[in-house]
Fold:
Amino acid sequence: MARAADKARGDRAFASIASSEMFEESIKMAMATWRLAGSNSACLNEADAGRDRPMAIYGEFKARVALEALRGDKTVQEVAAKHKVQPNQVSTWKRQAIDGQSEVFSNGADRDREDYESGVRNLHAKIGQLTVELDFLANGLKG
Structure:
């Protein structure tokens, strides 16, 4: 019974706060601050980056930060503080840069070969699907 009374009291308190002009104004200010920080902050995920800046610029920023972290003259925390991003994000970009180094020096033949093999696998899967469908329909017409 006490829980129900506490819940009702809390609901009434929340309703009075939510309906107040001060609450609405604080929400508006928070949203404006969030939008401003989102458009100027480099700490956006890739989906958000396309809205405020071209993906190429965002990619260049990530590469610059990762390269600075790879140099080793500053710690990851110092690089993150300088560019106003989270240290774990800098570490992720650094790892991605290390993992992607082989692609920088490849001549594209590996990528072409993988695309070709992927296309062949897709075509074989489609042939198999069509064969099964044809056999099913042929058996249906016979019976």
In short: The chain has three domains: 1-40, 44-105, 109-143. The two ends are 69 Å apart (CA to CA). DSSP finds eight helices and no strands in the chain.
